[in-house]
Amino acid sequence: MLNNQGRPTSAGSAAMTEAHPTFTGNRALMQEEALIFEIGRAGTTGVDLDEPAQFKSRLGGLERKQELTLPGLTEPEAMRHYVRLSQKNYGIDTGIFPLGSCTMKHNPRLNERMARLPGFGDLHPLQPLSTVQGALELMQDLSRWLIELTGMEAVALSPKAGAHGELCGMMAIKTAIAARGESRKIVLVPESAHGTNPATAALIGFTVKTVPARPDGTVDPAVVKSLLSPDVAALMLTNPNTCGLFERDVVEIAEAVHAAGAFFYADGANFNAIAGKARPGDLGCDAMHINLHKTFSTPIMCAPASPT
């Protein structure tokens, strides 16, 4: 079996290996290896540890009573084992990351290098504020740029991931609804939204109602209006959507949602495609998140919804 580059797929490789076995089981640089616990031998280690000095345990009787039963390997065996594991990984050195790569974070080498800069990568969360003024300045500048790019009024840098940011935004919407003395329970989620959208809404107690897509993959404002009611808390819209299409009726949809007293949440995972072209805040978005790895690292293609 060949992929679109004419190379054997994993299934094809397995079939070739089975049809043409080698004496060692190896195929070129891919080395066959037994499980690490099968290779390991008791009493073997690649690390020399001195006998510990006398000490008083502080584990309160919770220390381990049995051996660790870790596989004993020499240093070369341990190194080879982890190198072979790395050959099974899909990473930026082996292929591209297509649209929808949320589970495969593409962090370019430059990003990793910047994150490790002295005075930045070694900061501690509990350092005195007087010692982290440079980092605070960087965060302030970043916040200002993000507000300008998105057209929003404020930004939170505390969420640690896209789904975490999405949760933060939807919790803010839930709190705003409660502050109005309302108890709206339904969140509308289009078929073209990211999978985290219904999961996030359900996680914080909302009932999810699906919005079907038009044949061209976009959301029909007439369908949204037919689903709106006093019990609808928000609409979660991915724009550009998972089909890579810009939702051309986004303003009409936002106006309808607001007229019903609900909030408009924009999933910004694909914000890369419209950054500098359109601002979600100007389109009627009340809250959004931005996926760091895709907005500022991985290019994302966006096709127009129609020739016009």
Order of helices and strands: HHHHHHEHEHEHEEH
What quaternary form is this? single chain
Q: Determine the fraction of residues in helical runs and give it as a percent range.
A: 25-40%
Strand order of the largest sheet: 2-1-3-4-5
Largest sheet: 5 strands, parallel
- Poorly predicted ranges: 1-17, 299-308
Q: Radius of gyration over alpha carbons? A: 26 Å
Individual helix count: 10
Structural class, please?
alpha/beta
Strand content: 5-15%
Mean pLDDT, to the nearest integer, reads 83
The separation of the N and C termini measures: 40 Å
> Number of DSSP strands?
5
| Morphology | extended
Question: How are the elements arranged and paired?
Answer:
Elements: H1 10-19, H2 36-39, H3 75-86, H4 109-115, H5 133-150, H6 162-179, E1 186-190, H7 196-203, E2 207-211, H8 221-227, E3 232-238, H9 250-259, E4 263-268, E5 287-290, H10 292-295
Parallel strand pairs: 1-2, 1-3, 3-4, 4-5
Helix pairs in contact: 6-7, 8-9
